[in-house]
Design brief:
164 residues, two-stranded antiparallel ribbon, mainly alpha, elongated, 7 helices
């Protein structure tokens, strides 16, 4: 799967998500489902298949509310939590500030653009700025060590090798 874990790739995803809107609507697909699906695909492209599944489930629960504004705000919150709680590491206070700025800024920018396809592009374009913010890094995947001592030993060896 193609990953969009940089500003350029994330901006390209924003354009593709916007371009997909018109064919989806012309084929009669439910608009709310598109928003949930594109958000889950975005999270999957950030490197989190489990987080993407949770995003889709949370988005499905938001569909039950039936209000478009609640769906959009809810999906922005779900994206922010998936990105900063599951996929990337940052200081908690910093993560809250960054995610609040990106989610809020993305929603405001999308609202200002007006048309749905431009709004989708605008929201995900703002989300691309996440990769320009310093102080965040991808969460490390499991090292394959089932023993905590072995995992600690491997981390210590990495630190020693980097310091030489």
């Amino acid at each position: 799967m193609i990953r969009w874990d940089s500003f350029g790739r994330s901006a390209a995803f924003a354009a593709c998500a916007a371009l997909g809107w018109t064919p989806w609507v012309l084929l009669g697909g439910p608009r709310a489902f598109y928003l949930v699906g594109v958000t889950a695909v975005y999270v999957a492209g950030l490197g989190g298949p489990v987080a993407a599944t949770l995003t889709a489930v949370a988005g499905g629960a938001l569909l039950l509310v039936g209000d478009a504004a609640v769906l959009c705000v809810g999906l922005a919150v779900v994206l922010a939590v998936a990105r900063s709680a599951f996929l990337y590491r940052a200081a908690p206070a910093r993560a809250v500030v960054v995610e609040t700025a990106l989610a809020g800024g993305g929603l405001v920018f999308a609202r200002l653009l007006g048309t749905p396809s431009l709004a989708i592009w605008g929201f995900f374009l703002v989300q691309s700025f996440f990769f320009l913010v310093g102080g965040v890094r991808a969460r490390e995947t499991a090292t394959g060590h089932s023993d905590p001592f072995e995992a600690a030993h491997a981390r210590a060896m990495e630190v020693l090798e980097r310091s030489l």
